[in-house]
Specification:
This protein has 160 residues and is of the alpha/beta class. Helices cover 35% and strands 19% of the residues. The protein has one domain. α3 crosses α4.
Length: 160
């Protein structure tokens, strides 16, 4: 299976503060699957480190009040094209990120408050039919995709 992953989950130091969000679970997937690491924020031209960003009324802003929405959307579009070109089966993304958050994002007040919602890249993937899972749900999402692949293979066998 081809899986797009947030690069920070593989130890790439692309997080806003220069760190990473290394996940042993995600790294172990490389033994059984083809992984495509991406960082939409770097792809959009943002630097490391950079000021923390949140989505404020639909626009990505940094904690200084600067509008960085264009860079986020540009990077999301670049990474979406990679996903489409590579025919990605699943994306596993970093929690709470204004780019990659799948289930929750910060509320735009820079107070650490979480709300239901998706980051710019996660939403774009969803709009283009690419399933995206939060890293905390990676194993469940893989099991679900495997079931889908098995049933497609069974259907193909029946048609032959």
């Amino acid at each position: 299976m081809k899986i797009l992953v947030s690069a920070c989950l593989l130890g790439h130091r692309c997080k806003y503060n220069g760190g990473d969000n290394y996940s042993e679970t995600v790294a172990a997937l490389a033994q059984r699957h083809q992984l495509l690491p991406v960082c939409p924020e770097l792809a959009g031209g943002l630097s490391v480190p950079r000021h923390p960003c949140e989505i404020v009324r639909g626009t990505v802003m940094n904690d200084r009040g600067e509008n960085v929405d264009g860079a986020f959307r540009r990077g999301a579009a670049i990474c979406l094209q990679k996903a489409l070109d590579e025919k990605i089966d699943l994306a596993i993304l970093q929690s709470r990120s204004p780019s990659c958050g799948v289930k929750q994002i910060y509320d735009g007040t820079f107070s650490g408050t979480l709300i239901q919602g998706s980051g710019v890249f996660a939403q774009l993937l969803r709009e283009h039919g690419i399933p995206a899972a939060d890293v905390s749900d990676a194993e469940e999402a893989l099991a679900e995709r495997r079931k889908g692949h098995e049933s497609q293979a069974d259907q193909a066998d029946k048609e032959i």
